[in-house]
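seq:
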Amino acid sequence: MNNTKHKNILPILEQKRFWHLVFFLPCLIIASTSLPKADNLADTLVGAYTQSGLLDQNRALLRAADEDVAIAGALLKPIVSWSTELSHDYGESRSSFAGANTQNINTSSFTAALTASWQLYDFGADRLRVDSSKELVLATRASLLQVEQSVFLRGVNAYFEVYRQQEFVDLRRNNLRLLKEELAAANDRFEVGEVTRTDVAQAEAAVEAARSNLAIAQRDLTRAQAEYTNVAGRSPGVLTAVPALPNVVTNVAQAQAIAVRNHPQMVEAKHNVAAADLIALAAGRDLKPTISLGGSLRTTDKFDNDEKSDLGTVSIQIGGPIYKGGELSARQRQAYARRDAARGNQHYVRHNVQQNVVNAIAGVVAARAVLVSSREQVRAARVAFRGVREEANLGARTTLDVLDAEQDLLDAQTTLISAQAGQFTATYAVLESIGYLTAQRLGLPVQIYDPVAYYNLVKNSPAKLSKQGRQLDRVIEALAVED
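struct:
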């Protein structure tokens, strides 16, 4: 995504913004210097994406997997090394011939050598390992996307938990205010003899219970805010109106087909199988001979007699294992076993992904039904409460009847708030179950992490002192995660 296109909608202090996150809906910014910072769901997800240490960790693991391609590829290139040796020989030299003299040895020498070797042909074993490393890179990229989905789903849950608890606190606070009014009314009616002391005590008990429930709601809000801070990297501001729901697939078969093709866990499992297949092939070819080209340059300088020698060697070597104690056969069998394990895991992941789709869609269907029923429950409870209160004013109902009706209304309103939040979390769980809960698909105004950029820098195994190697050093320094 073009980051420049979205930079004008990045969070700005002392602005209140309202924009809906429904698969790339347009954004509307309403600036105000007098209003506190407002948070919407997109703000939360942006914070989760940019502040997550878990994402930083897995991005670093992906870069480590990229380096495995470079390491495997290095085996296909010549290996050049150097060595030096400074030595001193001392002792005596004797001959077995009669009359031969004993000679003392006391010489010093310096030797410098440059050697090179290049494996020319190994029946493709090392090339297969390079290809396997590339498959593991693709698997690790998919794993990173799954971590991203998990971070976003946690962000969604944190946002709506704060929303839910804020509404609960407001509801409990309003309930306490109403119960205080009921208590005052009960005292007034007691003074004129319309109710008994029992009615007043019931009202007092309800007020104290409301105070207790308000304290619990405030505690739960504090916990929800702590979770939000952990996920988004900052404390929540004033939450804006609930955004529009994203469109999701609710046909199980269709959603499962999307998930099997697209879900990061399925993609990761497929690439792990491909990598294991390649390693199994390479293990079989390790039993075959190899052809290598070798060469060396060596110079020796003896200090005592100014003797100096230079020697160069070029060779072609053909060889292979005959017997290594059964190690190569064991490694081949091990590779086959790991290949079978990867295939079994792919089968396991496919069924889990399909089950998660069913669970998520069932959750969103149920959440929609609960929301409809909750709205009707609130409507009916409000009508009942008003009726009971009017009847109590006429003396046809007791104070306890009023308190019970008000409690029913409070319970219904609480259920409605939970149902509203539950519908959103269930909807985003469907997106996660099919692999669509990513920064790119959500269209978030963030710089999307590019997993290909670092891979392209290292895939050819650049030397540290090369131009590309120096560029890599700067990239690594920029990517370093601070404590």
